[in-house]
Design a protein that fits this description.
Distance between the termini: 114 Å
Keywords: Coiled coil
Strand content: under 5%
Structural class: mainly alpha
Mean pLDDT: 75
Low-confidence stretches: 1-28, 39-73
Strand order of the largest sheet: 1-2
Shape: extended
Number of strands: 2
Length: about 425
């Protein structure tokens, strides 16, 4: 009589919950089991096997939960990345907006770039290396790990830290470290790009910072040193001669040695973050007509003209962006830009004189618009006709080229046949001699 055994196994109910169920099975002898396995052949069928969902309820539910957690984790990481990028962008935005003006701003460029670069480097570079001055910041290699602080100590901003703390359930510690490492990589890449194309490399930019009112008022000795750099660069470039450089240096020294109250009064209208009063207006109002600063004003005038560059063109990009709307045609953009420039030239919309000619032109705008549409319609029709004619000619040319190719092939075959026949005749002719 075969031995009976009690086997307990875990089964799954319809809801996917594991339940314990006991049942009796007969232990089959080994020889009978082998015999049965030998006699049984696998059944071949076209029926697709569909598992009973009751046995996989728990597994499916676990997978769905994992998928939802994974999706939430990705969303949380995305929000953290956006918060970090916004933190960096918010710091860079004032710098970019400040220099989009038609006023000469290069004297402020040295300090502004150094401040921005130092801000970014303070987030990931070791504090010991940040004690150096502006130009020496360019020599710090952010690609070397020994110059950087640990990833977990990177300053990613308060908003990013808060969001990262809220993701403790859906994001693992390893994913957090990977995210912070990505932030460090972004910072090092950005810093390397700023170092590569930095104005801090140029002696002229450092020299032009001597015209910065803050440098003159708070660090007059540093201002004099930088002004000497500026005069050397201008002299080496043959922009000013030796005599003018010497006289300008003396006058600048005298200007820096003015009383602090006098300097404050001179630079009082100067607001670095507005386009109302520029350095050209500030220096011009004080130096023009002063015999004691005649040479200094000549040098400053050259420097401010040099620093102007393409400011009007670059500022125009921002104006164009503010004028653009969806589906605006190129001619409309140009027309609106003309109107904008004319209003600015007149000093504001209230200063525009509305003449009878302007009123008549506005009244006829609708008519001119329909005439323009009709003209465009005719141009399009003529263009379509030319395209159709060109397409027809292309087909004819292609057909003729095909016929010519066929004729040439037939002629070539006929010529080869004649050559073969001629060779045979010549051989027969030679055999008769």
């Amino acid at each position: 009589m075969p031995q009976r055994a009690m086997l307990a196994c875990k089964n799954v109910d319809e809801n996917g919950n594991a339940v314990n169920q006991s049942y009796r099975t007969e232990a089959v002898p080994n020889n009978e089991r082998k015999e049965k396995k030998r006699r049984t052949k696998p059944e071949i069928t076209d029926k697709v096997y569909t598992p009973d969902p009751r046995h996989y309820g728990g597994l499916l539910r676990s997978l769905s939960q994992f998928e939802s957690i994974n999706t939430e984790g990705r969303q949380c990481q995305c929000s953290c990345k956006l918060a970090f990028c916004k933190t960096i962008a918010d710091e860079c935005q004032p710098f970019l907006q400040r220099f989009q003006t038609s006023k000469p701003m290069t004297p402020y460029l040295f300090e502004a770039v150094e401040k921005l670069l130092r801000y970014l480097m303070n987030r990931c570079v070791k504090p010991d290396l940040m004690k150096c001055t502006g130009p020496k910041l360019l020599s710090i290699d952010t690609k070397k790990s020994e110059n950087l602080i640990l990833s977990k100590n990177i300053d990613i901003g308060f908003a990013t830290k808060r969001l990262l703390g809220e993701t403790a359930i859906t994001v693992t510690e390893r994913q957090k470290l990977e995210f912070i490492h990505e932030c460090r990589s972004m910072l090092t890449t950005m810093i390397a790009k700023l170092q590569e194309k930095s104005p801090l490399k140029q002696k002229a930019v450092r020299g032009l910072s001597s015209l910065d009112p803050c440098v003159i008022q708070h660090s007059p000795q540093l201002a004099q040193k930088r002004f000497s750099f500026l005069l050397e660069e201008l002299n080496h470039a043959n922009i000013i001669n030796d005599v003018l450089a010497e006289n300008a240096k003396k006058e600048y020294l005298h200007f820096c040695n003015l009383k602090k109250s006098e300097l404050q009064e001179i630079f009082r209208p100067c607001d670095q973050f507005s386009d109302e009063v520029g350095l050209d207006t500030i220096y011009g109002s004080f130096l023009i007509g002063e015999a004691n600063y005649k040479h200094l004003w000549e040098v400053i005038k050259i420097c401010l003209v040099l620093s102007h560059g393409n400011a009007t063109v670059e500022g125009g990009f921002s104006v164009n962006k503010s004028l653009l709307v969806e589906n605006m045609h190129e001619k409309t953009v140009i027309a609106q830009r003309h109107i904008h420039d004319e209003i600015q030239e007149a000093g504001g919309i209230k200063n525009i004189h509305i003449s009878k000619k302007m009123l008549d032109y506005v009244r006829g705008a609708r008519k001119r618009y329909h005439e323009y549409l009709e003209m465009k319609k005719q141009e399009k029709s003529e263009k379509d006709k030319k395209k159709a004619e060109k397409r027809k000619l292309d087909i004819q040319v292609k057909d003729l080229e095909g016929e010519r190719k066929k004729l040439m092939m037939a002629t070539e075959e006929k010529r080869e046949a004649i050559d073969v026949e001629l060779q045979e005749l010549k051989k027969k002719q030679a055999s008769l001699y």
